[in-house]
Amino acid sequence: MVFASATGIVYGLVDRSLQKGRYGVLGAAIGGGIGGLLFDPISMLTLRGGPSRAVGFGLIGLAAGVAIGIVESALKDRWLYVASGPLAGKQFILYKPATVIGSSQQCDIYLFKDPSILQQHARIELRGAQTFLQAQGQVFVSGQPARSRALQSGDLIQIGRYAFHFRERHRK
Q1: pTM of the model
Q2: pLDDT per residue as tens digits for the range 26-74
Q3: Element (H or E) spanning 124, and its range?
Q4: Is 137 within 8 Å of 159 (Cβ atoms)?
Q5: Taking a C-beta distance cutoff of 8 angstroms, is the pair 161, 139 a contact?
Q6: Element of type H or E holding 16
């Protein structure tokens, strides 16, 4: 579990997100625990330590990765679901105070194969309970041109040939 938790920390550090790091550690600890529990039964079956270590570490990594995904999905608060474009079907969980969208590979959400998209086309900012879109290029929200506006769950954001559904967990 300790070994797997380190991967969860790295998961958050890569995106410089404390929240993503917490989810990573929680998911990795759960997955590492499951993978670690399988370590001894494999050793008993093979009567040797080498195969149990090889299979056990592989299972720890697999279980940690799956558990991180499950925890992240269960605890997500706000996200974009790609409805059309080359990334259709993918979702981007909004963790950072500001998420940059554009054609630059350094953007948090990299949109490729569309020359109409600027290098830093738009930003999504999390301000407390509200989410704001700031556009440098042409963006439509629910069919209307937008430069700056608060987003509501269900809004359709159109950037070039990409379309995103903005979703947020309903707060109680």
Answers
A1: 0.64
A2: 666 666 666 666 666 766 777 766 666 666 666 666 666 666 666 666 6
A3: strand 122-127
A4: yes
A5: no
A6: none
